[in-house]
Recover the amino acids of this structure.
């Protein structure tokens, strides 16, 4: 299937590794020109070089921190300056730290709000005028299955990520007249550094090894395994494509059947 992404311009944030990198790779494989960003400039360059070597697509790497509003504005400006347009935005900022309610003070709540919600707000605000000029756009937010089924020891994520879904659902109505779709993708248990971090926290809490914690995560998935980043990236590439033109306001789990709720 031709996804119609050749020469489209995409910005994927927090994309030097993990889910962000997998999304950038999937888009580049379909012929999109991709801007990627992350805090670690060395890791970012290595990620960009690998995408170029693998796909032959043009990649722009811009070091930036999604917790910094100036960096967010700059990465969007650099993308448009380099490619001349911006049509696809994949918002991603990692996740707030694991912990229970009594583990966090106001400062940690504010930091999580800034990283998880406000980075999405700021990215969309900065990118939106360029999509409106095109009369076409795709906004895809990487969130978490915790929105549908709160996860143990993730009070910050469980509380703040649903706000991103409320934002996206509202924007899907507001931006539809401009030919812009807005969707969320909810990763389940997928093999990334984030899963390693969560496994370490759970291993410590449950007095088990990290390997045992990861194995237990996979056993909880109906498909019986932890997912791979490439499987997630393929879903994002589809939602970013011409073929997904009648899908907006959706929160799609990519979780191997982990979420048990019917809605």
């Amino acid at each position: 299937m031709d996804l119609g992404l050749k020469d489209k311009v995409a910005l994927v944030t927090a994309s030097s590794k993990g889910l962000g990198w997998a999304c950038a790779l999937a888009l580049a494989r379909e012929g999109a020109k991709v801007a990627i960003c992350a805090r670690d400039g060395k890791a970012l360059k290595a990620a960009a070089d690998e995408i170029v070597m693998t796909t032959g697509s043009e990649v722009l790497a811009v070091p930036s921190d999604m917790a910094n509003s100036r960096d967010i504005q700059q990465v969007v400006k650099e993308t448009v300056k380099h490619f001349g347009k911006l049509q696809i935005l994949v918002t991603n900022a990692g996740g707030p730290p694991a912990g229970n309610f009594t583990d966090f003070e106001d400062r940690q709540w504010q930091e999580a709000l800034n990283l998880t919600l406000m980075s999405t707000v700021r990215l969309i605000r900065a990118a939106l005028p360029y999509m409106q000029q095109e009369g076409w756009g795709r906004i895809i937010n990487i969130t978490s299955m915790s929105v549908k089924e709160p996860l143990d020891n993730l009070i910050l994520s469980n509380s703040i990520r649903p706000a991103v879904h409320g934002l996206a659902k509202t924007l899907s109505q507001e931006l539809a007249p401009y030919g812009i779709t807005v969707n969320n993708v909810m990763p389940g248990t997928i093999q990334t550094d984030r899963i390693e971090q969560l496994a370490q926290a759970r291993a410590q809490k449950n007095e088990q090894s990290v390997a045992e914690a990861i194995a237990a995560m996979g056993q909880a998935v109906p498909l019986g395994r932890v997912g791979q980043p490439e499987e997630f990236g393929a879903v994002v590439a589809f939602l970013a494509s011409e073929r997904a033109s009648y899908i907006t306001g959706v929160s799609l789990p990519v979780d191997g059947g982990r979420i048990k709720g019917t809605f």
In short: The first strand starts at residue 9 and ends at 12. Residues 189-226 form one domain. The chain has two domains: 9-188+228-254, 189-226. The CA atoms of residues 14 and 38 lie 5 Å apart.
